[in-house]
Write a structure and sequence with these properties.
This protein is α+β, with helices and mostly antiparallel strands and 368 residues long. The protein has 3 domains: 1-53, no CATH class; 59-219, 3-Layer(aba) Sandwich (Rossmann fold), CATH 3.40.50.300; 240-365, no CATH class. The protein is 26% helix and 25% strand. α7 packs across α8 (176-188). It binds guanosine-5'-triphosphate and magnesium ion (MG). It comes from Streptococcus varani.
C-alpha cells in the first residue's frame, strides 16, 4: 500500500501508536479513504475542538527540509509576520536557499492600521532582509483575509516561479498554511484544507499541493523560534500576540518618569524629555497600565500575573524576566516589542523598553 499522509499537517498516517504523530484510528482512516481526505487525530482535534496535542518535531527535520529546498530549482516563498520581523527570521536561510529566487511575503497586513502605507512597510522589510543576507526578488504584503491581496499574491508567485515548484517556508505561526488555504480556496473553492491554528508547530511535515502544470507548491513546518513571544503564553492568551482585527492606536500623554506597562508582557519607561504623546499599537484588548517610574519595579513584582495579565499567574511561573533596553530617541521612531506591537515616540526622549529575556526590542523609523 502506498504511504498515506495527513492532508492537514503532512504527517505520515499510522494506526498503531496513539502517542506518535500521524495516529489515526482505523475507523477514521476507513472513512477518510472513502471521502479521499484523511486527517490524523491531532488535526481532527485541532480543527473541531481547537485542542492541541503536543508532539516533538526536531530541528533536524527542519534543517533536512531546508537542504532539500537548497538542492531543488524552485521559487522560495519566505513568509514573514509583519508584526514580528525579528521572530520571523529563519537563521541561515540565505545560505540554504543558495541560488534560488526568494519572494518575501509580509503577511497579516490586515492587522496594521489602515493609515500605514504599504510602501513604508515593504521598504522596511527589504532593508531587514538585506541585513540578514537575503536578496529577495520582490517583497510583497498580503493578508490571508483579503481576497484581492491573495489574487495579487497568486499572480506574483506565478510570474516568479517560471514553471518551477514553490516552497513556502517561514518560522512557525507566520501564517504559511493559512495563506496556502486562501490560495487553494481562490483557485478550487475548497475551504480550510490544511490545518491551521494559533498554536506554534501546527504543520508537522511537508504538504504537497499539486499545481495545474504538474509542479507542486509545498507547505512546510515552521521552525520554532525561541525568540517568539508565543512560546511563553498558553492557549488562552495567544490572542494578544495574534490579533485578528485592525489595531487601533492609542495615544498616552506622559510626563518624564512615567511608565507604561504592556500588561505584564513588557514595559515602557519615559525617562527624560518634554511631556509628550506616545502612541501605542497593540492588540486592542491588551491592558496598558500607566504608573510612576519610581515604583515600577515593585509594581511589577507585586502585580504581574494578577493586575498585569497576561501572563496569567500560571504562566508567570515560566515567564522570563523583563530585560531593559535603553534608547535616546531623536526623531519619530517606532520602538518595536518583537511580536507584541510597538510604541511610536514622536519627539526627543530618553526611554527604556523592557521585554521578556530573549524577545527583541528594535527601533525603526516610524511607519506612520
Ligand atoms: N490577522 C491575521 N491572522 C493570520 C493571517 N494569516 C494567518 N493568521 C493567523 O496566524 C496563526 C497561525 O497560522 P498558521 O497558518 O497555522 O501558521 P503557519 O505558519 O502555518 O504555522 P506552522 O504550521 O506552525 O509553521 C493563526 O491563528 C492564523 O489564523 C492573516 O493574514 N491575518
Ligand atoms: Mg502551517
Amino acid at each position: 500500500m502506498e504511504e498515506l499522509f495527513c492532508i492537514g499537517c503532512g504527517a505520515a498516517i499510522q494506526t498503531t501508536d496513539k502517542e506518535e504523530v500521524g495516529y489515526t484510528p482505523q475507523s477514521a482512516l476507513d472513512k477518510g479513504l472513502e471521502t479521499g481526505q484523511v486527517y490524523c487525530q491531532r488535526c481532527f482535534r485541532l480543527r473541531h475542538y481547537n485542542e492541541i496535542s503536543d508532539v516533538n518535531i526536531s530541528d533536524d527535520d527542519f534543517i533536512k527540509l531546508l537542504h532539500e529546498v537548497g538542492e531543488s530549482d524552485a521559487l522560495v516563498v519566505n513568509v514573514i509576520d509583519i508584526f514580528d520581523f525579528n521572530g520571523s527570521v529563519i537563521p541561515g536561510l540565505s545560505r540554504f536557499v543558495s541560488g534560488n529566487d526568494v519572494l518575501m511575503v509580509g503577511n497579516k497586513k490586515d492587522i496594521l492600521p489602515k493609515s500605514v502605507k504599504d510602501s513604508k512597510v515593504t521598504q522596511w522589510l527589504t532593508e531587514r532582509a538585506h541585513e540578514v543576507g537575503l536578496r529577495p526578488v520582490d517583497v510583497v504584503l498580503t493578508s490571508a483575509q483579503n481576497k484581492q491581496a491573495i489574487k495579487d499574491l497568486i499572480d506574483k508567485i506565478e510570474s516568479y516561479r517560471k514553471g518551477r515548484n514553490v516552497y513556502v517556508v517561514g518560522v512557525t505561526n507566520v501564517g504559511k498554511s493559512t495563506l496556502i488555504n486562501a490560495i487553494i480556496q481562490e483557485i478550487t473553492g475548497d475551504k480550510d484544507v490544511i490545518t491551521t491554528s494559533r498554536f506554534p508547530g501546527t504543520t508537522l511535515d511537508k504538504i504537497e499541493i499539486p499545481l495545474d502544470d504538474g509542479s507542486y507548491m509545498f507547505d512546510t513546518p515552521g521552525i520554532i523560534h525561541r525568540h517568539q513571544m508565543a512560546h511563553y503564553l498558553t492557549a488562552k492568551n495567544l490572542k494578544y500576540i495574534s490579533p485578528k482585527k485592525e489595531i487601533k492606536p492609542k495615544t498616552y500623554q506622559l510626563n518624564p518618569e512615567q511608565t507604561l506597562f504592556l500588561a505584564g508582557l513588557g514595559r515602557f519607561d519615559f525617562m527624560e524629555g518634554e511631556r509628550q504623546g506616545f502612541t501605542a499599537f497593540f492588540e486592542n484588548t491588551l491592558d496598558l497600565h500607566r504608573t510612576k517610574l519610581a515604583g515600577a519595579d515593585d509594581f511589577y513584582q507585586k502585580h504581574a500575573g494578577s493586575l498585569l495579565v497576561p501572563p496569567s499567574s500560571k504562566e508567570m511561573a515560566d515567564f522570563p524576566e523583563l530585560v531593559r533596553h535603553e534608547f535616546m530617541i531623536k526623531e519619530k521612531t517606532d520602538v518595536v516589542f518583537s511580536g507584541l506591537g510597538w510604541i511610536r515616540v514622536n519627539e526627543k526622549a530618553k526611554i527604556a523598553a523592557w521585554a521578556p529575556k530573549g524577545v527583541d526590542v528594535v527601533l525603526r523609523k516610524a511607519i506612520i
